[in-house]
Design a protein that fits this description.
The complex is a heterodimer. By secondary structure, chain A is mostly helical. Chain A is 76% helix and 0% strand. Chain A starts with a helix and ends in a 13-residue tail after the last helix. By secondary structure, chain B is of the alpha/beta class. Chain B has 11 helices and 10 strands. Chain B is globular and about 55 Å long. Chain B starts with 13 loop residues before the first helix and ends in a 5-residue tail after the last helix. Classes of the chains: A mainly alpha, B alpha/beta.
Chain lengths: 308, 288
């Protein structure tokens, strides 16, 4: 009898000591994984930080009020500014997002709420993903063929058209994903009150997914604001202020590209400053939208950005 | 308040009424003889599927007006499916279908001419988990059904919101914070908010699918009290897996097993003197 108890105690002791050893090993692994994650965060942040630092360092010297408002002057002297480029970017991106945001949102609504399962929604999703991955220069060529050749001039319309086609698939995807995260019980609650489905979708489901949809629009606008290639084929770039929707305009990415390809230091400084302005515009826009959304009481929800 | 949201009504053919009701289960009251309320909702040969799996095998049952009917039975017996068939919510699940008759005041809601949306305006529903609309305030949660069904009279909506919150015994707790988000309430309050939201539509029948299963005992007893008080104005159908709750709150009880209605009758009779052996075994806790 005593022997058995002795053995039991022994076993218990052994078990505990192995468990302790194992747990100390587990703690080590735990720490290792944490350190690894921190290193990866560093790897992601360092380039971002150094880019921002570099842009500010090189661009700040050229940044003056006239730089923001004036037309480009002589490249050698470093006079003049990027007024037309800022104006052109705001107009082109503005029109593009006015087209792309509703189109993308409603397409996303269709896929998430009405399409169900079947070959058609499957095909739409597939081609949408293909469109997301298409090189933007190709869409520039499309804009060139469809609009520039038809109206006979590089134009705001062509640029906005090309940019909106880049933005739509992003908005579609994010809208669909954020609607799918809304619990079905919310839709059922709407149905149980005898509310027609389209009203449930617009007034209840979409509202619940609003912060996600907004994030999609912000991502889309940030993406097209920095596009250069399609703009070369569509709005061409000019040193004049906006003269009409059928005429060429300038845009920040185009201006940065032009300034950077000059051999003069003053032009390079202007290029850095223009890049800084582009970053600030996108940042300001994104923060403002989020602020407005937060004030309306919508919680910012984390969503999946698969296939972006 | 007038029932402005009521759908069109049709007369039921007299032959159907007579023949069908005579084959329904008779309700016996051995001790006292009271007037049995007239049927509000007559379910006839109702079958429901999930894909090819048959979840309900021909249910016949009369839900009596201004009474509380409880559906009990072990998990998977089809009681939730049955209650979801009573406002045509079942068929909204992908792959699900239902056929048969559910006659509401003489109108078969499974008739091809009937729009399922209008049925849901007359028959309210409260779900297992509280599901207030997440972006809406307390006020808007209650008003949503009215507003989104096209009612614009601000005064009328105000009145109905207050009346409904009072009806759900929530008014006193929230009257000073009607503009706060509905999600900020406690679980029990959220469920009463959902009841108020359903009551705002002035339903003739209220379907409750295990309304207290995610609540603590105090919140549950509040809801039970509420349900008990509601039957003077409307007809209540409640699904519960809590037999004490069914015994406490309901007038009639239906016991279901494996998609079939085993026994239906007066709650007292079902619990004290069940006719079927299966019912007796379930009620005494021998299975389920």
């Amino acid at each position: 009898m005593e022997k058995i108890q002795q053995e039991k105690a022994n076993l218990k002791y052994q078990l505990q000591s192995t468990m302790e050893r194992k747990s100390s090993k587990k703690r080590k692994i735990d720490r290792l994984v944490t350190i690894f994650c921190i290193i990866c965060v560093g790897l992601a942040i360092v380039p971002l930080g150094s880019i921002l630092f570099e842009v500010i360092k090189n661009g700040i010297s050229a940044l003056r009020i006239e730089f923001l408002t004036q037309r480009p002057g002589s490249m050698i002297s470093g006079r003049g500014g990027i007024g037309p480029a800022i104006q052109g970017t705001l107009i082109t991106v503005g029109i593009a997002s006015i087209i792309a945001a509703p189109a993308g949102i409603f397409a996303g609504i269709y896929l998430a709420e009405f399409a169900g399962t079947g070959p058609l929604p499957h095909a739409i999703r597939f081609f949408n993903d293909v469109l997301t991955g298409l090189p933007s220069i190709v869409l520039g060529i499309v804009g060139y063929i469809v609009i520039v050749l038809v109206i006979g001039s590089f134009s705001v319309w062509a640029g906005s058209f090309a940019l909106s086609i880049i933005m739509i698939p992003i908005v579609v995807r994010v809208t669909e994903e954020s609607l799918k995260v809304v619990p079905n019980s919310i839709r059922e609650a709407g149905h149980s009150l005898g509310i027609p489905k389209w009203k449930i979708t617009l007034h209840i489901t979409l509202k619940a997914a609003f912060s996600g949809v907004l994030t999609g629009i912000v991502i889309g606008i940030s993406r097209i604001a920095g596009e250069t290639a399609p703009l070369i084929m569509t709005i061409l770039g000019t040193s004049l202020f906006f003269t009409g929707f059928d005429d060429p305009v300038d845009a920040l990415p185009l201006r940065i590209w032009r300034l950077a390809s000059q051999p003069y230091d003053s032009a390079h400084a202007q290029g850095w400053a223009a890049a800084l302005i582009l970053i600030l515009i996108v940042l300001l826009f994104s923060v403002t939208l989020r602020f407005l959304a937060a004030r309306k009481g919508f919680k910012v929800r984390v969503i999946r950005y698969s296939n972006l | 308040m007038s029932r402005t949201l009521k759908g069109p009504e049709e007369e039921l053919s007299p032959t159907l009424q007579v023949s069908k009701i005579s084959e329904s289960v008779e309700i016996e009251r051995p001790t006292e003889v009271k007037d049995i309320p007239p049927p509000k909702l007559s379910i006839r040969n109702l079958e429901a599927w999930f894909g090819t799996k048959r979840a309900l095998k021909g249910i016949n049952l009369d839900v009596r007006e201004n009474s509380i009917t409880a559906f009990i039975g072990p998990s998977g017996c089809g009681k939730t499916t049955l209650i979801r068939c009573l406002n045509r919510m079942h068929e909204m699940t992908p792959g699900a279908s239902a056929k048969g008759q559910a006659i509401l005041d003489g109108m078969d809601m499974y008739d091809a001419k009937v729009d399922p949306v209008t049925i849901k305006r007359r028959i309210g529903m409260v779900f297992q988990k509280p599901n207030p609309f997440p972006t809406m305030s307390i006020y808007d949660n209650v008003a949503a059904g009215l507003k989104l069904n096209g009612i614009k009279d601000k005064k009328l909506i105000d009145d109905i919101v207050r009346e409904s919150l009072e009806g759900a015994a929530l008014w006193e707790e929230v009257k000073n914070e009607l503009n706060k988000p509905g999600m900020g309430l406690s679980g029990g309050q959220q469920q009463r908010l959902c009841i108020a939201r359903a009551l705002a539509m002035q339903p003739e029948i209220l379907l409750m699918d295990e309304p207290t299963s995610s609540l603590d005992p105090i919140a549950s007893s509040k809801i039970e009290e509420l349900v008990h008080g509601m039957k003077k104005d409307l007809t209540v159908v409640i699904v519960t897996h809590n037999m004490q709750q069914a015994a406490r709150v309901s007038d009639f009880t239906a016991f279901m097993y494996l998609g079939e209605l085993i026994e239906y009758g007066d709650t007292k009779q079902i619990f004290e003197n069940p006719r079927m052996e299966l019912t007796e075994r379930y009620i005494s806790g021998k299975f389920g």
